[in-house]
Amino acid sequence: MSIAVLGTNTEVGKTFISAALAYAFRERGIEAVVFKPVETGEPDSELLKKMGVGVNSVYRFKTPATPMLAAELEGEKIDIEHLIEECRNVLKSHEYVIVEGVGGVASPIWKNFDSSDLVASLGIRSLLVSLNTLGSLTSVITSAKYLEMKGVELSAVILNRSDDSFICKTNTEILKEFLRRELFSLEDTTLDEAKQKLLELVDVIK
Predict the structure, then answer these.
(1) How far apart are CA 24 and CA 88, in angstroms?
(2) Is the Cβ–Cβ distance between 98 and 35 less than 8 Å?
(3) What single DSSP character describes residue 125?
(4) Residue 12 pLDDT more than 90?
(5) C-alpha span between 76 and 121 (Å, rounded)
(6) How far, rounded to the nearest angstrom, does the alpha carbon of residue 44 sit from its chain's CA centroid?
(7) 31, exposed or middle or buried, with CB in 10 Å at 0-12, 13-18, 19+?
(8) Residue closest to 131 by CA, chosen among 14, 4, 5, 3
(9) Is the pLDDT of residue 112 over 90?
């Protein structure tokens, strides 16, 4: 089994959420791993492997940019058929795979192929991660509609780095009403505390 963790944008906490979710699955007795098919910039996959939950990426680029641009700047190309085939091999090789997307839902992996297209090609469900801040309503709603347009099932939304502010509280209330999806709010917290919070999500999506 598997699920994708996608973001409304880059730097919203996808890797943190993915690692915490993997630990939560393992607490439920499910051997979950985190898989970043395409990675740019800082090598998070290496950190995830040191944490005991990561597996190797298919494509890895040093340039901190969208994969298509990073590949072109480094004189490389991304073979989409090869990427999909390798992803399917990883999904078959583990009990539960958390597939972490790169950038936002529409981040180009290669020409006419983005993060959502990859998830759609694999036929797996998704979780959408966003920061909980001013402007998050538009980011989450447009990302959810984009996933729907691409044929990707959205199982739940995670609002990361939430607090007790008026904006955070109203974002949560409005999105619950508008999206009619499971919605989880996480404070800026430790990995272990996030894991405990996400145990409830594991019971929804496993």
Answers:
(1) 23
(2) yes
(3) E
(4) yes
(5) 22
(6) 13
(7) exposed
(8) 14
(9) yes
Q: How far apart are CA 125 and CA 91, in angstroms?
A: 13
Q: What angle do CA 185, 191, 194 make, to 5 degrees?
A: 25
pTM strictly above 0.90: yes
Interatomic CA distance for residues 181 and 183, integer angstroms: 6
Rounded distance between C-alpha atoms, residue 123 and residue 142, angstroms: 21
On the question of pLDDT at 35 being above 90, the answer is: yes
Q: Under DSSP, is residue 192 helix (H, G, I), strand (E, B) or coil?
A: helix
Residue 147 has pLDDT above 80, yes or no: yes
Alpha-carbon separation of residue 149 from 2, 26, 117, 119, 205 (angstroms): 21, 33, 10, 13, 22
pLDDT tens sequence across 185-200: 988 888 888 999 899 8
Which two three-digit tokens encode residue 183? Answer: 């919605």
The residues assigned a catalytic role are 36
pLDDT computed for residue 142 by the predictor: 97
Residues facing residue 35 across a β-bridge: 55, 99
| Residues β-bridged to residue 131 | 160
Q: Which residue from 183, 86, 204, 107 is spatially nearest to 150, judged by alpha carbons?
A: 107
Structure confidence at residue 44 as a pLDDT band (50, 70, 90): confident
Return the SS3 of 161. Answer: strand
Q: 10 Å Cβ neighbour count for 70? A: 22
Gap between the Cα atoms of 75 and 204, Å rounded? 43
